[in-house]
Amino acid sequence: MRLRLLVLALGTFALGTGSFVFAGLLEGVARDLSVSVGAAGNLVTVFAVTYAVSSPVLVTLAGGVAPRRILVAAMAVFALANAAAVFAPTFGLLLACRVLAAFGAAVFTPTALAVAAGLAPPEGRGRAISFITGGLTVSFVLGIPLGSIIGTYAGWRMTFVMVAALGVVAMVGIRSLLPPVEAQTVVSLRERIDALKQPAVVAALCLTTLGLMGGFVVFTYVSPLLAEITGFGGAGVSGLLFLFGVAALFGNGLGGYGADHIGYAPLMATILALLALSLLGFSLLVALAGTALVLPATIAALAVWGVAGFALNPLQQYRVAQLAPRTRNIALSLNASAIYLGQGAGAGLGALALGHGSLATLGWTGALCAVCALVVLLFTTKARRRPETVPERG
């Protein structure tokens, strides 16, 4: 089973690199295509919102098709879109390439998560899901820093060449190594909408959106923010992003372990509190720029943010699946949409914060989103209910 999960994680690694590599490229894209950094951030917003809106529809249309065929086709679309982005002469055409890439990702990720959850035994589903989301996390450790370095020294278009190549490798790997998997039951769009009638599921999706929103207010513009705080150039910022990715890798593992062994509510409350504090720290760090404390404090803030922010994702994936065990695939698809909706909304909110404030505004704006997520958690957790030790198996 591990080999099967590995090829799926290879796909999410390619998607994660292509989706988030703009964090280190925005300034170069803005300069070359004559737009502001805030406008360039719309490349993240458009991708994420397209994913969030299209995923339930596209996954429904693909229902009944063999999952391996869906995964290969979705990755082919993603790779083609990134290859086309290499030659995009205008910002508008680059946005169109991002929309096409989002269509591929919108089908691939929920399908891969559903396949992974179906392959694993009930007691190992949390770890199986975290293994797939781990591909996204590893993209922060390797893909995004490498893409940032390539963008710094060879231009941002060459980064798209790298992403397209990763997509092709993932597509070939899935086609060659993933055995045929039984087609999933066709689920209508109406059934997906009906899943939103469950208050607990809606609350969990809101929490996912707010948590990711807070992180992406800052992450979308993390390259100019880190440069402002530390004075580092492209290579130095890439090094800091690598450290962030290492912390994220630990966080992803913590989320998977916590899903299987730790009570949901206390762990999620801790995660959100740490996320809010770490994001707020970036507003404070701007004031410390140029002092001896700024570099170790920045590394500490990145580490806490990486662990907390990436523990949230697999924990929420598992939580949503367990809240709707009979419609697990629907729930995972909706949660994937919530993740990308949060990313897109966070990038858009970050652009507003930059337009009406400064880089220092990003930290406390992101922290406020995390606090709102914590409020949702507290209001939807029954105070008199005994904290869960092991989630109910679906």
From TrEMBL:
Its main location: membrane. The keyword Lyase does not apply. It is found in: Cell membrane. Pfam families: MFS_1. One of its GO terms (molecular function) is transmembrane transporter activity. SUPFAM superfamilies: MFS general substrate transporter. InterPro entries: MFS, MFS_dom, MFS_Efflux_Transporters, MFS_trans_sf. It is a multi-pass membrane protein. One of its GO terms (cellular component) is plasma membrane. The chain crosses the membrane at residues 39-63, 70-94, 100-119, 131-154, 160-178, 199-223, 229-250, 262-287, 293-312, 332-353, 359-379. PANTHER family: PURINE EFFLUX PUMP PBUE. This is MFS transporter. It comes from Rubrobacter tropicus.
